[in-house]
Automatic annotation (TrEMBL):
Organism encoding this protein: Nocardia goodfellowii
Domain of life: Bacteria
Reactions mediated catalytically: L-ribulose 5-phosphate = D-xylulose 5-phosphate
Reported cofactor(s): Zn(2+)
SMART domains, per the entry: Aldolase_II
Its EC number(s): 5.1.3.4
Keywords from the UniProt entry: Isomerase, Metal-binding, Zinc
Protein name: L-ribulose-5-phosphate 4-epimerase
GO molecular function terms noted in the UniProt entry: L-ribulose-phosphate 4-epimerase activity
Length: 220
């Protein structure tokens, strides 16, 4: 990747952080988006504690996949070690998002998976959204929990117990989309639960819906 490509990635991350604000997934300075730098053992991530309004391409931080600062004047996100662990152990992942979005985090506070009771869930997540273990912030324990929980799951989202949401994708934009969709289905599943017991979708239908969404839906 050239310096021009890296500059483009930094600009894209500023725009994607604004998407988190636009969709109501973050409060104050909480939450972050990162992106793997193609062809290099590097990632770009939000600086720690900086307002979304103040983010610029120049403020984005470049780290290696051990979480060490490579380029940038600011300290990287407190979740950097978690993001780095995910990239090291999931080579297909090109983007990671973390939010404390309200409805999804409420399910995380209950340590309860979001059941697959909506066709939109079958489409995007291929089943229930699983719960990962409780882990303290700052080290790679959260990243380890994300990787271990998502192993064998089709879901690009995991609810970390008593914490919030982590999503992954082939690129940062896809990870942001998964975070948006996670909050959307968490809200609807919560509303359904308030009315009674939601009706699960049969596994064969989940499989069919997920395959159609991956291989037929949209423009080719």
């Amino acid at each position: 990747m050239t310096d021009l490509d890296l500059a483009g990635l930094r600009t894209q991350l500023v725009d994607l952080h604004r998407e988190l604000v636009r969709w109501g997934l973050v409060a104050w300075t909480a939450g972050n988006v990162s992106a793997r730098v193609a062809g290099q053992d590097l990632m770009v991530i939000k600086p720690s504690g900086v307002s979304y309004d103040d983010l610029t391409p120049e403020s984005m931080v470049v780290c290696d996949l051990d979480g060490n600062l490579v380029d940038g004047a600011l300290s990287p996100s407190s979740d950097t070690a978690a993001h780095a662990y995910i990239y090291r152990h999931m080579p297909h992942v090109g983007g990671v998002v973390h939010t404390h979005s309200s409805f999804a985090s409420a399910w995380a506070a209950r340590a309860e998976p979001i059941p697959c009771v909506l066709t939109a869930m079958a489409d995007e997540f291929g089943g229930a959204i699983p719960v990962g273990p409780f882990a303290l912030i700052g080290g790679d324990e959260i990243g380890r929990g994300v990787v271990e929980t998502l192993a064998g799951h089709r879901s690009p989202a995991v609810l970390m117990k008593n914490h919030g949401v982590f999503t992954i994708g082939p690129d940062a934009r896809a990870a942001v989309k998964a975070a948006v969709m996670c909050e959307d289905v968490a809200r609807t599943a919560h509303l359904a639960r308030s009315l009674g017991e939601p009706v699960p979708i049969p596994q064969s239908a989940v499989d069919s819906l997920h395959d159609r969404y991956r291989n037929v839906y949209g423009q080719r």
